[in-house]
Design goal:
The chain is of the alpha/beta class. Helices cover 47% and strands 14% of the residues. The chain contains 36 helices and 30 strands. The longest helix is centred in the N-terminal third of the chain and has 30 residues. Helix 4 packs across helix 7, helix 22 crosses helix 25 and helix 24 packs across helix 28. It is globular.
Length: 1022
């Protein structure tokens, strides 16, 4: 028999990425108010607005925040300063941060504008600070500089702590309890959140668990505890709270929450599980259900959960909570919130190329969802409703729907929405709980910024209330009416992920955080298959070389066999390609571009097979295999679009009676030599660029990965590219040398090592009778990431782990050298070691695996020999789970100087050095002097630092406050300079130009009897 819980889960699955109009059509009836109700709601909302405005005019803090809202440059500057300042330990960086955030803003524009003398005094202080720190500070700066900066730092620190205190209930649970008991909080209860951001290490998770346990004990035993409760964040309790790791993390988290729930139940206080990103919802429900069914919690109705109304699945989650409560006999407290991760969820869906968004794209749609869910919660027999938010219209609607009921509560964020609930609580008997962060001010900053951005965005009620240009009618506009007017359509400025790029379809991704999709992918990856045989054909005849087994680097099993080409095969292939090139070049560019687009479609249609090959042949993890296919698809579609706009005749200006026309044509035969680390994406990226520009192609895949290349060429032929235009020649150095040495090869695209690139360049110049052949080379790099003391350590560590160890460090762009400011180095390195300990090393066909094998035994032996030679400098090294396969343990190695890194080690080996504040310019110069110029990373909250590094760094790609890998075709063109390549950048607007020759045709149009155009001019100014 199907249970109500199962029905609700089924509806959640159906709605996850359903079209927005369809979802809203089911919500609108419950959220629509009739005329009489709307009239009562507006009257109540008017009263609440009066309360809010009165509260905004009381207290200088409220007026300060009203003056410096997030739609002003100054408000953003203060927010940015608050986010970073208190964690900066050194004076030099603190001064840079102050100068960066306060030095350019127009504080004078706010002088005397507030009704509060304290606000105006604070503004005067900001004006004075700007005078001291700005570059044009003049005589005042010179007079006070020596004594002024320490005073400025002290003043800014005090101000930031004061800002923090507005939004944080207390630095510890005892301070929070004392503050909750103060008269200004009379009548309100609290839900204490111990400010557990996502744990990066097991040590972090243990620390947060202890903080929750201690908080429950403190609240439960305090006479001030009353009806307060505790909120917990699941991602703070496990460093790998991920769908791929659900089999391990869900039981562990269930045990932890069960322990906390039993403790809370013993003290008679509540415990609520916070909502997080959409991808974690189903895991969260499994954990909540596991705890709710604990027999020892029978009769305790203090357990609860938060639900985010911006999610398309919100309403069936409410139904699920009701069904769970009914099946256990306990009421479940449900906190309904609008949602806290909206912008990051939008970006994630776009980056991953998903079919649709899991949430609504309009604020009014979220409001409709909120009201529909609230309606259900009032009707639910086994839910205790809690309505969180700061919107006067929403609160007024709930009051009207509730009538005389008081068996529910409102909730609000501490420090926001003052005046919204005070009268309702103290005069009308409603309950309101304050969501109250607890923790040190240094720890609160990421939380603080997220909440301020969420509630201070231009579309939020809190922001609109403070904006004098927003009328009361606009503030109280009916969301259901708005959604009906636009027929539920998504926001026009937020394109679906597939429509992200102009002129082309974005590559389709797979939602590996959806359990059903993940199960299907894993079945496809692990299905037993017959070994693949790659037997290249030249002019209709098979290549004549010998067969060789292709091995799985994870376990040494045979993936397939390849027939390698001989020198004779190379000569036959090039002759065939040279003969076919003119006809291919003569075909309209539209036809060539259409072939690439058909190939992209075929790649997506054959995605499971290609992913399986990438996993088995190249040792890629499942996520990396998916990214590989998507990048190949993007190359096909991007170069098709570029060719249509670039490869066409251009009429050039000149004197009358003359026609000058520029044509771009293919060079002839292009050799494309690709690496094993991107055996599909880079292979096809080179091949497609050469083909669409009118060249015939000789493609040589890396010896380690010929099978996926062979399959890609088969699909290219199927897409309409002639066999004699595209040849694939598997083999090793001998095949490569034969291709490069052939005088009918008119261009070379190569990705690989610098020594090989040099060899190719020399070989292309050996024959003095041979024309100079263009070489497009992308090689490796000694890629560094600079971290200063303003950076957020948790973000740094997450990006370092991704950049250094994803793909087992086998990316050209991978992080090789971590350069950390010495004042924060110890803490960051300690956190990094803990994060490394959470990595899973193993079979790349296992979705849990983070670090797979390196490509072959030769690579493993070279890396391991170097790793052992540096053993005395190991900072941290992981243990390998077994001795099979070609695995190398991720290792962090300390260097005395960055110059000690002499060459690129293409694997999971990360080197670390420190630098001193004030040495940024010399540091960047030293990194430049290493000679490589592929990628560089920077983590800093100081814009001036980012600007400075951007000007100085001689690298092809600079990544600021993000990971250094995963360049997106058309968004982040990839390629380096110096020892890292020749350019132009792959996946960029100039790449195709290197594959063509330019030809100009100049015609004298008067030679046939005069300049007819000039002679026939009419008078036009009469």
């Amino acid at each position: 028999m199907t249970s109500a819980l199962d029905i609700s889960r089924s509806k959640m699955e159906a709605l996850l990425r359903a079209p927005e109009p369809e979802v809203l059509a089911g919500l609108l009836p419950a959220a629509t108010l009739d005329a009489a109700t709307r009239g009562r709601v507006l009257a109540q909302a008017g009263l609440i607005l009066n309360d809010l405005r009165a509260a905004q005019d009381t207290g200088w803090i409220n007026r300060f925040l009203q003056e410096y809202r997030l739609n002003t440059q100054e408000g953003v500057a203060l927010l940015s300063l608050a986010e970073a300042y208190l964690r900066v330990p050194d004076a030099a960086t603190a001064d840079l941060l102050i100068r960066d955030k306060l030095g350019d803003a127009d504080w004078k524009a706010h002088s005397g504008k507030s009704s509060s003398g304290l606000v105006n005094s604070a503004t005067f202080g900001l004006v004075l600070t700007r005078a001291l720190v700005a570059e044009d500070g003049g005589a005042l700066k010179g007079l006070l500089a020596r004594a002024g900066e320490p005073f400025i730092r002290a003043g800014v620190a005090a101000a930031m702590k004061m800002m923090g205190s507005v939004f944080v209930m207390g630095r510890n649970i005892h301070e929070a309890l004392d503050r909750a008991a103060k008269p200004e909080n009379a009548g309100f209860t609290a839900s204490f959140d111990m400010l557990g951001e996502s744990a990066r290490t097991r040590e972090d998770a243990d620390k947060y668990f202890d903080s929750y346990r201690n908080a429950i004990e403190a609240v439960g035993t305090s006479p001030k505890g009353k009806a307060h409760n505790i909120s917990v964040k699941l991602s703070a309790l496990h460093p790998r709270y991920e769908v791929a790791n659900a089999a391990a993390c869900v039981p562990e988290l269930t045990d932890m929450i069960r322990e906390l729930a039993r403790q809370a139940a013993g003290h008679g206080i509540g415990l609520t599980v916070d909502a997080e990103e959409t991808e974690r919802l189903m895991m969260s429900l499994n954990i909540i259900e596991g705890v709710a069914r604990d027999p020892k919690l029978k009769g305790w109705e203090g357990f609860g959960m938060a639900v985010q109304a911006y999610g398309k699945r919100c309403r069936p989650v409410i139904a699920w909570a009701q069904a769970l409560g009914a099946s256990t006999g306990n009421k479940l407290m449900v906190r309904l919130v609008k949602g806290a991760y909206w912008d990051s969820e939008i970006k994630k869906a776009q980056v991953e190329g998903l079919s649709d968004y899991p949430l609504f794209t309009r604020k009014a749609a979220t409001d409709v969802s909120y009201l529909a869910c609230a309606h259900d919660m009032f009707d639910a027999s086994h839910i205790f409703p809690a309505f969180a938010g700061h919107n006067a219209l929403t609160v007024a609607t709930l009051i009207d729907w509730a009538g005389d009921r008081r068996d529910f509560e409102f909730q609000r964020l501490h420090g926001m929405g003052e005046g919204l609930h005070e009268r309702l609580v103290r005069q009308e008997g409603y309950s309101c709980r304050t969501y109250a962060p607890v923790g040190g001010h240094r720890e609160l900053l990421a939380y603080l910024v997220r909440r301020l951005l969420e509630n201070g965005a231009n579309s939020s009620f809190v922001h609109q209330l403070a904006d004098a240009t927003v009328t009361e009618d606009m503030l109280l506009a009916d969301p259901a009416t708005h959604i009906k007017a636009v027929e539920g359509r998504p926001h026009p400025a937020i394109a679906l992920p597939r429509d992200l790029f102009p002129g082309r379809i974005n590559s389709a991704g797979l939602d590996l955080n959806d359990t059903e999709t993940l199960a299907q992918v894993m079945t496809a990856i692990n299905v037993p298959t017959t070994p693949l045989k790659a037997a290249a054909m030249v002019a209709g005849q098979p290549v004549t070389g010998t067969a060789r087994n292709v091995l799985n680097p994870a376990d040494g099993s045979v993936v397939g066999t390849v027939i390698e080409a001989t020198a004779a095969d190379v000569h036959r292939a090039i002759a065939s390609a040279a003969a076919a090139a003119p006809a291919w070049n003569a075909r309209p560019v539209e036809e060539r571009a259409a072939c690439l687009e058909r190939l992209a479609d075929l790649l997506e249609a054959n995605r499971p097979e290609l992913m399986r090959l990438a996993v088995r042949e190249a040792g890629k993890t499942v996520g990396d295999a998916l990214a590989e296919v998507r990048e190949a698809v993007d190359f096909c579609r991007y170069y098709a679009v570029q060719a249509r706009t670039q490869i066409k005749p251009e009429i050039l200006p000149g004197p009358t009676g003359e026609r000058n026309e520029l044509h771009l044509v293919g060079r002839g035969v292009f050799a494309c030599i690709s690496p094993w680390n991107f055996p599909l994406a880079i292979f096809l990226g080179q091949v497609c660029a050469a083909l669409v520009t009118g060249n015939a192609v000789i493609a040589k895949p890396a010896p380690q990965t010929p099978l996926i290349a062979w399959r890609a060429v088969e699909l290219a032929w199927q897409a309409g590219i002639p066999h004699d235009v595209l040849h694939v020649l598997p083999g090793g150095v001998e095949v490569g040398d034969a291709i490069i040495g052939h005088t009918q090869v008119n261009g070379v695209a190569f990705t690989g090592s610098m020594p090989t690139a040099r060899t190719i360049a020399r070989n292309l110049l050996k024959d003095d009778n041979r024309p100079i052949v263009p070489l497009i080379a992308e090689t490796g790099g000694l890629n560094a990431m600079i971290v200063d003391s303003s950076a957020l350590p948790e973000q740094v560590v997450a990006d370092v782990v991704t950049s250094a160890f994803r793909s087992a460090g086998q990316r050209c762009s991978a992080l090789r050298l971590l350069v950390v400011q010495e004042e924060v180095a110890e803490g960051i390195i300690t956190m990094l070691k803990g994060a490394m300990d959470t990595l899973v090393i193993g079979d790349p066909a296992d979705i849990r695996t983070d670090v797979g094998p390196v490509i072959d035994a030769g690579a493993r032996d070279r890396l391991e020999a170097y790793r052992q030679s540096a053993r005395g400098n190991w900072v941290h090294a992981l243990e390998l789970p077994h001795n099979t396969g070609t695995f190398v343990a991720p290792t962090l190695i300390r260097l005395n100087s960055l110059e000690d890194l002499k060459q690129e080690w293409f694997g999971p080996l990360l080197h670390v050095v420190t630098w001193k504040a004030g040495e940024l310019d010399s540091l960047v110069a030293r990194i430049n002097a290493l000679g490589y110029g592929l990628t560089m990373g920077l983590h800093s909250r100081i814009k001036a630092t980012a600007d400075r590094v951007g000007l100085m760094a001689r690298v092809g790609n600079l990544y600021v406050n993000r990971s250094m890998i995963g360049a997106v075709v058309g968004s982040q063109p990839f390629g380096g300079e110096g020892l890292s390549g020749t350019g132009p950048k792959a996946g960029g607007p100039h790449f195709l130009m290197r594959f063509v020759s330019e030809r100009t045709i100049s015609t004298d149009t008067t030679s046939a009897g005069g300049n007819a155009t000039l002679l026939s001019l009419a008078e036009t100014d009469v």
